[in-house]
Structures are given as structure tokens and as C-alpha cells.
UniProtKB/TrEMBL annotation:
Lineage: Bacteria, Bacillati, Actinomycetota, Actinomycetes, Kitasatosporales
UniProt protein name: DNA-binding IclR family transcriptional regulator
Molecular function as annotated in GO: DNA binding; DNA-binding transcription factor activity
Keywords: DNA-binding, Transcription, Transcription regulation
A Pfam family it matches: HTH_IclR
Alphabetized InterPro entries for the sequence: ArsR-like_HTH, GAF-like_dom_sf, HTH_MetabolicPath_Reg, Tscrpt_reg_IclR_C, Tscrpt_reg_IclR_N, WH-like_DNA-bd_sf, WH_DNA-bd_sf
All residue ranges annotated as the IclR-ED domain in the record: 68-213
GO biological process, one term: negative regulation of DNA-templated transcription
Domain (HTH iclR-type) ranges: 6-67
The organism's place on the tree of life at top rank: Bacteria
Length: 213
């Protein structure tokens, strides 16, 4: 630290870097130990960063990077969407269902990229910007399952009728993308999801994760 720098800002930036380097978030105690400061200082830093949506805390108290980080750079969000589109297009065309990339935004799931199939007679209308609770719908449930490490092989979540009557969904979480928590999935008008779709969604999530690294 020099006379021209801010200790508080420096600590806040270090908090963001520490959180960006973990997929599971950090507790106040863990941050306190890593920063070498007391818990009160960490609480104040997190509260300030939360006000700007740069940090969010889950129900268990673990702090994670917030989507406000994406909003700092106007081109970051489009770049995330652009990176995911090839895998989403392939998924939508292969399955014949609407494919989407969903990210966590606070306590909600936010669809940031959506691709509809070109060859089907009908499909579910699903738009970028659509929000829903994390505990409803395949996209959000896949993210929650990844947090709790309860996803069984091959690593996807299935739902039916939770967001739209008559629609089924399949989603798989993004794994290994530092600072990004989300899922890739499809939604279709059917009573159930065909068996092959689950693994196809897992493969697409892996492709998107690779593109975002």
C-alpha cells in the first residue's frame, strides 16, 4: 500500500478476487482469515459490495460474486451470450426444443440467452430476460443441485409443469467456470423428457463452460 491508494478499496477488490476464485463461495470467517482482518471489517465490505450487486450471499451465508460484476462492462453480458450461442443453437436444432443459458441473479434464475429450433411446427416461447425462482424449473433446480452436490450421474435435472402447464424441462449446471453460476437447458411441450435429452443437455453445458473459460 502507498499513500496514493485506498486500503478499503484494496480490501474490497481482494474480496472480489477471492470470491471469483471459488465455485462454492466463502463464509465471513473464511474471508476474514484470508484477508487477515476481523469479521466486522468483512461484514462491512460485503454489505457495501452487496449494495452494488457485486456480491450476493446465499441462505447459508456464503458470499459469491454477483451479476453486478457483469454489468460493470457493457460488453461482458453480450460476450457471455455470444460464447454460448453456438452450443445452444446445436442443442435446439438437435433436440427440436427451445434451448437456454440461465444465470443466477440474486434469488432468481435469469435467462440470458435463448435459441428456438427452426424446423419444428411448434415449441415453447421462452425469451431472454425471463426470470423465475431458483427452486422452480429445471434451470434453477440444476443450479441448486450443483451447489449441494446432489446431482446423480449423468448430472441433469428434469421437471414438468413447474413454470408452464404442459411443458417439461431438462437442465445441467455449468461446471468449472470461475465467477459464473448457471445452467444450460431445454424446455419442450411434452409430458416427459426423452431419455437421450438429458445427456445431450449435459454435453451442451460442458461446451458452454469450455467457451466461457
Amino acid at each position: 500500500m502507498t499513500a496514493e491508494t485506498s486500503q478499503t478499496l484494496d480490501r474490497g477488490l481482494r474480496v472480489l478476487k477471492l470470491l471469483a476464485d471459488t465455485d462454492h463461495g466463502l463464509t465471513v470467517t473464511e474471508l476474514s482469515n484470508k484477508l487477515g482482518v476481523n469479521r466486522t471489517v468483512v461484514y462491512r465490505l460485503l454489505a457495501t459490495l452487496e449494495q452494488h450487486a457485486l456480491v450476493r450471499r446465499d441462505l447459508g451465508g456464503r458470499a459469491r460474486v454477483g451479476l453486478g460484476v457483469l454489468r460493470l462492462g457493457r460488453q461482458v453480458h453480450p460476450l457471455v451470450r455470444e460464447a454460448a450461442l453456438p452450443a445452444l443453437r446445436s442443442l435446439a436444432e438437435d433436440i427440436g426444443a427451445t434451448a437456454h443459458l440461465t444465470l443466477v441473479d440474486g434469488a432468481e434464475a435469469l435467462a440470458v440467452a435463448v435459441v428456438e429450433p427452426t424446423w419444428t411446427d411448434y415449441h415453447v416461447a421462452y425469451r431472454a430476460g425471463f426470470r423465475h425462482p431458483l427452486d422452480r424449473g429445471a434451470a434453477g433446480r440444476a443450479i441448486l443441485a450443483a451447489r449441494q452436490s446432489v446431482l446423480a450421474e449423468p448430472g441433469y435435472t428434469l421437471t414438468h409443469g413447474e413454470l408452464e402447464a404442459g411443458a417439461s424441462g431438462a437442465a445441467a449446471p455449468l461446471i468449472g467456470v470461475t465467477g459464473v453460476e448457471g445452467s444450460v437447458g431445454v424446455v419442450m411441450l411434452s409430458d416427459s423428457v426423452p431419455e437421450r435429452v438429458g445427456q445431450r443437455v449435459v454435453d451442451a453445458a460442458r461446451e458452454v463452460a469450455d467457451a466461457l473459460r
